[in-house]
Design a protein that fits this description.
Layout lengths: L1 H18 L3 E6 L6 E3 L2 E3 L1 H13 L3 E6 L2 H9 L5 E5 L3 H6 E3 L4 E10 L12 H4 L1 E3 L5 H8 L3 E2 L9 H6 L5 E5 H10 L7 E16 H6 L3 H18 L3
Helix pairs in contact: 2-10
Length: 238
């Protein structure tokens, strides 16, 4: 009888594990956080996500998408169960739940050093400057909501510097680390650019509300795994 009970418990645990669906996630092309190099997923955001999923012992599938607009569309159409890493906004909150922070993103103005008259410190910058950000990104939507004169943004965040270098816009906004990565990748002289951090925001994981209807405890488990990830980072030598 005892052996039969143990066997039944084993079957129940195995069945519960088998019922967990593969977590379908979108990962925007957003260096240095998430990107592809030599056919392999790379980036500190990707590494963090893998650590968190390993802690949860959760199978996952990642789809690389060109930008956040595509990720949100796939989320809306239930093609994916979530996206990472992302900052928070009302549109995303309507269809998904925002996790505890995995990292921090610093939205930063970048403009040409040669530009002396119309800079983010200018009193008339918001009303006169032509600015840009990656199309349909959170930054792009925020700039439009704040009343900036926003030119059409590129799908690929790396192309923002082409707009700036060709003087088609007065300034661009993107995460500070992304800006520095693109500058380094293209061997642009760093001294050609000026920087000013505008906002500092949590960078985290979105999980769809539809998925959480099926697994209501998942968000607590995810945030616990994120806490473990943060502890592991503190343990690393500085």
């Amino acid at each position: 009888m005892r052996h039969l009970l143990c066997f039944c418990c084993f079957i129940a645990v195995f069945a519960a594990a088998a019922e967990k669906a593969v977590l379908r996630m979108a990962m925007p092309d957003y260096p240095p956080y998430t990107y592809v190099e030599d056919g392999q997923y790379q980036g500190e955001g990707y590494d963090a996500f893998v650590f968190i999923m390993q802690h949860l012992q959760r199978d996952f599938h990642i789809s690389l998408v060109p930008n956040y607009g595509r990720a949100v569309l796939d989320l809306q159409n239930e093609v994916i169960d979530g996206l990472f890493l992302a900052s928070e906004n009302a549109e995303r909150n309507n269809m998904a739940v925002f996790s505890d922070p995995v990292s921090i993103t610093r939205w930063t103005w970048v403009w040409l050093t040669q530009e002396q008259t119309l800079t983010p410190d200018s009193s008339n910058f918001a009303s006169r400057a032509i600015v840009s950000a990656q199309i349909n990104s959170n930054i792009y939507l925020w700039l439009k909501a704040q009343g900036y004169r926003v030119a059409g943004g590129p799908n690929n965040i790396r192309d923002l510097f082409r707009l700036l270098n060709n003087r088609r816009v007065d300034a661009i906004m993107l995460p500070e680390q992304t800006a520095l990565t693109v500058i380094k990748e293209n061997n642009y002289p760093l001294q050609n650019y000026q920087f000013k951090t505008m906002r500092e925001l949590p960078f985290a994981i979105y999980i769809s509300k539809r998925f959480l209807e099926k697994e209501p405890d998942f968000m607590v488990q995810l945030n616990n795994a994120i806490a473990e990830y943060q502890q592991s980072r503190k343990a690393l030598p500085q």
